[in-house]
Amino acid sequence: MNEQDFQAKLGELISQIGKLPESDRPAIEALASETKDRHDKMKKTITDLQDSLDYLRLSIKYLVFDLEATRRENQYLRKLLETKGQSGPCGEGND
Fold it and tell me: In angstroms, what CA-CA distances link 79 with 68, 76, 88?
């Protein structure tokens, strides 16, 4: 059920509650109001959860990017060390 359907059904319920005898209305109106409040809280919770998931996805993308960059740097530095090692010791003096 989407938001429009829920609001329409809730509106129908409230109008039908208005047709009830005066003695029965307060309890049912309280239940309808509580239902609306819970629905609003649930919508806010879902929105917050979606925002958190979006932030998590973005954070993961940054971490993956950083990991890939670190791997590329490691490969470059290993190759650099290998070429330095093959050309002989550098900067070592005889004592």
Answer: 17, 5, 15
